[in-house]
């Protein structure tokens, strides 16, 4: 065989019967997905027509559509926005009562769009999601047995938070959203909300720090969850002063809420942290000293305002305690009447007066929550639902505990501390329909990294 190469010509070396050369990857993509070309062109034409016909409306509409596309295609952006917006719920409600619900629906829709292309990860299901599934079944069973006393509104709220929990866990486990990044978003939003609440308080607009969350007790619950996280997300060398300011703002606002339930949760959290050696006595002493200095500074700067707030709090303290005891007793009676599946989602707010009238002391308040998360859940969904709810919280605590013991992770330690604080405060507040518990449970589940996946046979 000779080593000469036949001369090339200007003609196609392939004969008429030869197969055509394979198309390049971009050509194949364009052939399979013509909408990538047609879609933007069509949108450009429609946008130009809209600007010509209604220039005043076209701009906001196009911006809104662009934001919608981003949220539906960038799952991590959608979830970060939901987490940040949850701390400003009442501010958003003033613009539109459906604003936060729409953001949550967009985040879930973004997850569905991504999930339609296949699983986000190959890991096994977590115990948190298993408990959440049992809770969902209990909610449906209770609704079928009792009906929907409030028209199904409470069932939809439960469904929204359960879906958000699933999306958070699935997205973080897939690596599309780092737990630390989500924690920073929450801390940053909490610090901004705390600053807004402090400004509102110092201007005399509120007797207690509330602001973005109208009820100071609920606002305190958000801040209580954020306080340990603010210490964990602080990174030396990356603007640590910013996170120090965030911690100070959150701590100040938390004290300014005058929420006894949140303060009890804070004390329990500190005690557990010392017992578990998460912090030393020296560090605890320093933290308490810093809190006292901050409190003294506020009293010195605004003595009349603080005195007025304490006086107003004392004036209703005894009445609040009596009413809460009556509400707890009513919830307990509701559980005894229907221990398995409860009275139905939303039943406490609609029907608890029936049980109050049967008690020795009649409550004068028209509060529609039990001010006790666990009793309210048991009254509405029964002991089955309560067991599933507590199991879900316990799974989050377990995940954070094991991750901290295994890796010494500062974030896992902070999530554990936040869960201890919030689950304690939930004994005095109804917080099942606010983000902190669900976010912390999701973080606890994800921080406990699963065993590596088994490789595929072809790997």
Give the helix proportion (percent range): over 70%
- By secondary-structure content and strand pairing, the structural class works out as mainly alpha
How large a portion of the residues is in β-strands, by DSSP E?
Answer: under 5%
Low-confidence residue ranges: 1-33, 358-365, 450-459
How would you characterize the largest beta sheet? none
Number of strands: 0
Helix segment count?
Answer: 18
| Global morphology | globular
Separation of termini? 41 Å
- Rg, rounded, reads 27 Å
Mean pLDDT: 80
User: What is the N-to-C order of secondary-structure elements (H for helix, E for strand)?
Assistant: HHHHHHHHHHHHHHHHHH
Region (Disordered): 1-26
GO molecular function: ligase activity
Protein name: O-antigen ligase
Transmembrane segments: 35-54, 61-87, 128-149, 155-173, 185-204, 245-275, 281-302, 377-397, 409-428
Give your account of this protein's structure.
By secondary structure, this protein is mainly alpha-helical. It has a domain of 321 residues. Helix content is 71%, strand content 0%. α17 runs antiparallel to α18. The longest helix is centred in the C-terminal third of the chain and has 35 residues. The N terminus and C terminus are likely disordered.
What is the element layout, followed by pairings?
Elements: H1 25-32, H2 35-53, H3 55-73, H4 75-86, H5 89-95, H6 99-115, H7 127-146, H8 153-173, H9 179-202, H10 216-232, H11 240-256, H12 260-275, H13 281-301, H14 303-337, H15 347-356, H16 373-407, H17 410-425, H18 435-447
Helix pairs in contact: 2-3, 3-4, 3-6, 4-6, 4-9, 6-8, 7-8, 7-16, 8-18, 9-10, 9-11, 10-11, 10-12, 10-17, 10-18, 12-17, 13-14, 14-15, 14-16, 16-17, 16-18, 17-18
């Amino acid at each position: 065989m000779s080593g000469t190469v036949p001369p090339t010509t200007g003609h196609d070396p392939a004969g008429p019967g030869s197969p055509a050369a394979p198309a390049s990857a971009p050509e194949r993509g364009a052939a399979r997905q013509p909408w990538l070309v047609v879609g933007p062109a069509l949108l450009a034409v429609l946008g130009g027509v809209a600007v010509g016909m209604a220039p005043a409306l076209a701009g906001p509409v196009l911006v809104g559509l662009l934001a919608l596309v981003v949220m539906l295609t960038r799952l991590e952006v959608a979830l970060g926005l939901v987490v940040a917006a949850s701390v400003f719920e009442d501010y958003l409600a003033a613009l539109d009562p459906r604003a936060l619900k729409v953001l949550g629906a967009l985040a879930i829709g973004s997850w569905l769009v991504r999930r339609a292309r296949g699983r986000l990860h190959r890991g096994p299901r977590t115990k948190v999601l298993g408990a959440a599934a049992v809770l969902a079944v209990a909610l449906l069973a209770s609704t079928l047995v009792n009906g929907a006393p409030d028209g199904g509104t409470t069932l939809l709220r439960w469904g929204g938070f359960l879906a958000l929990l699933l999306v958070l866990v699935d997205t973080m486990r897939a690596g599309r959203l780092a737990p630390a990044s989500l924690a920073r978003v929450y801390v940053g939003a909490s610090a901004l909300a705390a600053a807004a609440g402090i400004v509102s308080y110092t201007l005399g607009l509120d007797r207690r720090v509330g602001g973005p969350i109208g009820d100071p007790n609920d606002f305190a619950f958000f801040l209580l969850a954020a306080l340990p996280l603010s210490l964990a997300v602080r990174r030396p060398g990356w603007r640590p002063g910013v996170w120090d300011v965030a911690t100070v703002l959150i701590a100040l606002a938390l004290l300014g809420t005058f929420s006894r339930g949140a303060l009890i949760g804070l004390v329990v959290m500190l005690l557990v942290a010392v017992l578990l050696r998460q912090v030393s006595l020296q560090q605890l002493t320093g933290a308490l000293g810093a809190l006292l200095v901050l409190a003294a500074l506020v009293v010195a700067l605004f003595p009349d305002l603080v005195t007025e707030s304490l006086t107003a709090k004392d004036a209703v303290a005894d009445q609040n305690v009596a009413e809460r005891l009556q509400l707890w007793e009513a919830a307990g009676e509701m559980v005894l009447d229907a221990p398995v599946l409860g009275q139905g989602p939303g039943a406490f707010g609609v029907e608890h007066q029936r049980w109050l009238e049967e008690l020795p002391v009649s409550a004068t308040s028209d509060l529609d929550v039990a001010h006790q998360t666990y009793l309210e859940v048991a009254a509405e969904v029964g002991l089955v639902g309560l067991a599933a709810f507590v199991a879900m919280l316990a799974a989050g605590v377990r995940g954070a505990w094991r991750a901290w013991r295994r890796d010494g992770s500062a974030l896992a330690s902070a999530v554990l501390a936040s869960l201890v604080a919030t689950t304690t405060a939930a004994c005095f507040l109804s917080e099942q329909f606010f983000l902190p518990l669900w976010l912390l449970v999701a973080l606890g589940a994800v921080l406990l990294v699963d065993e590596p996946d088994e490789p595929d046979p072809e790997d």
